[in-house]
């Protein structure tokens, strides 16, 4: 682990625990109230779909607390506005979000709105087709009643291989269709996974992209960035133990993978978009191609899903209120070790 850091030295070490995995161990007695870590942002996070209009996608400000029903500043205007999946409490937050999502400094971050719009479009198609039986769900029926006793690493590998081989991508047909239905949790988890994949792709395209090593200069104490893919992969993979304890989640995860494959397959080609200039077209197509490549097998989806349980934190409207409402969740990579701290 080698995060970008600023400020005072860490007051702890990351060491193996006696019961598996790693945790944060204090180097000395730390006075109560000491700020020991400031993360610039989660490596990957999601605001619940039902709250996307009410929670600022940048600062997480909750509209209700400001006396509003929802925020009105959208990530994108025009054709992709309503489906952009992100709203902001102010123009300043929108600008900060777009600046952070620049793959190259000075280049537009509008590519994210187009990918979000493709996601929303497939959800809309799913809602319209609710009356139809779940096409493709037949390949998952054998997982409906599995017990934890049959779940092994070999079982998981076979299930995911079948999932990969059974996917029919949209570009293989004249008109892409999605006939399976995702519940709210699956939709939110799909958005979480998509966020993680896109962050990995940005790192591959430009290893010095702004969002990768940004540290909050205004924060106090030991300050770290959100981290990189290698930092996220350093977290413990809990896939087997999680599915063994919750076998019903395996078909959910496979359905999420197949949905994202379909989203990627339906991303528009450059010549079909009139809202992008030549450089934006090239960047968007590079991201879209890499996303399809990353989804050609379940490897990266499984890596993200396997590190979700046990390593994420809830995003709440009021941190210290017992009546606080959970608005989403995020993986603060370097803070996750505090789940196992001493």
Features:
10 strands, 10 helices, globular
Characterize the structure shown.
The chain has 342 residues and is α+β, with helices and mostly antiparallel strands. It has one domain (5-340). 36% of the residues lie in helices and 10% in strands. It has 10 helices and 10 strands. It has helices spanning 91-100, 111-128, 153-166, 184-205, 210-213, 229-233, 239-245, 249-265, 278-294, 299-306, and strands at 5-6, 12-16, 22-26, 38-39, 44-47, 73-74, 87-88, 223-224, 313-316, 326-331. Strand 2 (12-16) and strand 3 (22-26) form a beta hairpin. This is SET domain-containing protein. It comes from Pholiota conissans.
Q: How are the SSEs placed, and which strands pair?
A:
Elements: E1 5-6, E2 12-16, E3 22-26, E4 38-39, E5 44-47, E6 73-74, E7 87-88, H1 91-100, H2 111-128, H3 153-166, H4 184-205, H5 210-213, E8 223-224, H6 229-233, H7 239-245, H8 249-265, H9 278-294, H10 299-306, E9 313-316, E10 326-331
Parallel strand pairs: 4-8
Antiparallel strand pairs: 1-8, 2-3, 5-10, 6-7, 9-10
Helix pairs in contact: 2-8, 3-8, 4-8, 4-9, 4-10
InterPro entries: H3K4_H4K5_MeTrfase, SET_dom_sf
Protein name: SET domain-containing protein
Organism: Pholiota conissans
Summarize the structure.
The protein is α+β, with helices and mostly antiparallel strands. It has helices spanning 91-100, 111-128, 153-166, 184-205, 210-213, 229-233, 239-245, 249-265, 278-294, 299-306, and strands spanning 5-6, 12-16, 22-26, 38-39, 44-47, 73-74, 87-88, 223-224, 313-316, 326-331.
């Amino acid at each position: 682990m080698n995060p970008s850091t600023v400020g005072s030295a860490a007051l702890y070490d990351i060491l193996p625990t006696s019961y598996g995995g790693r945790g944060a161990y204090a180097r000395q007695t730390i006075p109560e109230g000491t700020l020991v870590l400031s993360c610039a942002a989660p490596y990957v996070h999601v605001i619940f779909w039902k709250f996307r209009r009410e929670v600022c996608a940048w600062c997480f400000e909750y509209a209700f607390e400001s006396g509003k029903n929802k925020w009105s500043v959208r990530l994108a205007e025009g054709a992709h506005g309503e489906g952009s999946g992100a709203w902001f409490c102010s123009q300043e937050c929108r600008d900060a979000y777009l600046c952070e999502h620049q793959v190259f400094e000075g280049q537009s971050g509008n590519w994210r709105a187009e990918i979000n719009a493709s996601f929303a479009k497939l959800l809309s198609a799913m809602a319209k087709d609710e009356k139809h039986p779940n096409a493709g769900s037949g390949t998952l029926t054998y997982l409906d009643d599995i017990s934890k006793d049959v779940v092994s690493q070999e079982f998981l590998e076979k299930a995911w291989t079948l999932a990969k081989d059974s996917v029919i991508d949209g570009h293989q047909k004249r008109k892409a269709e999605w006939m399976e239905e995702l519940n709210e949790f699956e939709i939110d988890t799909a958005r979480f996974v998509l966020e993680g994949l896109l962050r990995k792709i940005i790192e591959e395209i430009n290893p010095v992209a702004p969002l990768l090593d940004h540290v909050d200069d205004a924060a106090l104490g030991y300050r770290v960035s959100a981290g990189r893919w290698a930092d996220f992969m350093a977290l413990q993979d809990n896939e087997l133990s999680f599915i063994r304890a919750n076998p019903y989640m395996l078909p959910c995860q496979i359905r999420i993978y197949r949905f994202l494959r379909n989203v990627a397959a339906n991303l528009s080609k450059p010549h079909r978009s009139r809202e992008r200039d030549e450089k934006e077209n090239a960047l968007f197509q590079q991201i879209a191609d890499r996303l399809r490549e990353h989804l050609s097998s379940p490897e990266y989806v499984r890596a993200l899903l396997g590190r979700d349980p046990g390593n994420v934190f809830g995003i709440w409207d009021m941190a210290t209120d017992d009546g606080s409402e959970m608005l989403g969740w995020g993986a603060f990579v370097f803070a996750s070790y505090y789940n196992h701290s001493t």
